[in-house]
Automatic annotation (TrEMBL):
Organism for this UniProt entry: Cyprinus carpio (Common carp)
Entry-linked InterPro entries: Beta-barrel_INTS6 (IPR057413), Integrator_subunit6 (IPR051113), VWF_A (IPR002035), vWFA_dom_sf (IPR036465)
GO cellular component, one term: integrator complex
Name the UniProt record assigns to this protein: Integrator complex subunit 6
A Pfam family annotated for this UniProt entry: VWA_2
Residue ranges constituting the VWFA domain according to the UniProt record: 3-227
Coiled-coil regions listed in the entry: none
GO terms, biological process: snRNA 3'-end processing
Residue numbers spanned by region Disordered: 595-648
Amino acid sequence: MPVLLFLIDTSASMNQRSHLGTSYLDIAKGAVETFLKLRSRDPASRGDRYMLVSFEEAPAGIKAGWKESHATFMTELRNLQAVGLTSIGQSLRTAFDLLNLNRLVSGIDNYGQGRNPFFLEPAIIVAITDGSKLTSSSGVQDELHLPLTTPLPGSELTKEPFRWDQRLFSLVLRIPGHTSPDPEPIGGVPLDPSPITPMCEVTGGRSYSVFSQRMLNQCLESLVQKIQSGVVINFEKTGPDPPPTEGKGEMKYGPQSWHSCHKMIYVRPNPKTGVPVGHWPIPESFWPDQNSPTLPPRAAHPQVKFSCVDSEPMVVDKVPFDKYELEPSPLTQYILERKSPHSCWQVFVCNSAKYGELGQPFGYLKASTALNCVNLFVMPYNYSVVLPLLALRMMGAPNLLADNMEYGLSYSVVSYLKKLSQQAKIEADRVCASVGKKAALEGGIKLRCRSSALSLAHRKDFTQLLHSIMGDGPALPMEANTKEFAGFQLAALNKALKPQGLRNPYDIPRSHLLDQLSRMRRNLLHASICILKGQDQDQLHSVPIAQMGNYQDFLKHCPSPLREADPDQPKRLHTFGNPFKLDKKAMMVDEADEFVTGTQGKGKRPGESSSPAGGGAPKRRRCMSPLLRLGRAYTPPKTPPRSKSFRN
């Protein structure tokens, strides 16, 4: 189930308009909708999860998270406004923390016990920005910096804020405000020189510098093709280069492009279950120590070394292995050009063994037989020694491998990981509950006077008090000074009301002036009550048509319901429009809902059977509704009247 997170720049600079007449923010919204349409053509898009994050501070910047529906995602997308700063560093950290919210709870990272490529949660972050200067409350920044501190538990176990199955792609809008007379360049979309580009490359993604609407559509089609299930790995060469093969030129000296590649391996799901299946992990870059109280932090992408010494592929019957295809890169191109499908290069992880810096091999790189791709085979650690021993053990040789391993994580590390999992669950619930909740606005304002005296407007010296407040008259004594509010209390009368009493008069539309004047007149005439009403009585029950069916958001803001008095009763569903619908799965069979056997056969012909043809199951009597059955009064059976013959 891929996660697609859209990070939209909502800084004030996104209000600038292109030569198309639309603002950059409108172009970004249209790009997201176009992306969703292109993605919907793929049948695999049914399992996609969409998230939306803006450049606002968390949690207000999280518009759609793990529990929001697609309708909420689209509504929040349309309601975005460009009014903030270009705080892309903080917003990126919020996006990564949102993606990593459930990883410690599910144990997908498997800290201290190797990295399992088949345990993944592929995510793609699509950032749409205008590439302006990075601004924050502290000033203008030249480089992109992500905050080091985060409330997410367990973030110290990984050096980077992202994980190996998360990639960042950026669409930097460079569409000019005036139509350019020069023809549009034809070819690939270039990288953008903005500070977000290095961050994209570190995660395994890239940036796109967009100069036209056609180029934007081209980038969106490319991004849809990037949605692949896989993890990013750093491949680095160790040892000397291989000797040149026949028909090839002389050996090139110095660093080559294939010596170090930062690419992805594809983790294909099982076609039957739709879930990837694997057996062996990529080892950690340290040897486990039972006396160690902590775990060393790991890099987001494992550093895999490959040796260019040709080896023979090794496979043992009945011993499983994992096979992953490499993303096309200079390394795969070089291996395919050698045309050696029957040889392989072993792969290592440094410091994975107890002795030796390079460690022992855990697999190998090998070209396919058809020479159309390169695969990474992951085997048991030190497979060149373990596989022959396993083969001998299958043949009956005893005492070749120990049944129990004496190495593992210490008790303190295991306890620490369990504690982090519990803290991460609490943090995940808190973040999910805070999504969509905005700061409560004060509606009506109720003033409670210090005494039971009349309002200031009813005092005889009201004019003198007014001049004193405005500074035109002499100051009043302390006990009569209306600027001192030590004894007053401000309380919201109704949290659901929007503020109408105290607002900038220039913000009132012209069509609403008469309504606002009537409210002000009513507040002035009822000043003794000390209540400022912001809405008319009929407006309290006025809801726009687009929000009438938004029942999920209504439930989100409702308080937690009380528990049922009788836990045996069926659980009542929150079904909009039908409050009496019950959960059919929780329904119990009533005693009266019994099978009918021989009594139903009365009144039938002698040749007919009471059971249906073929000896099937007997029919079930339809039970009356419990509400009707409980409300029906008991009626005693009527006795027939005696005949006249008995009276005589």
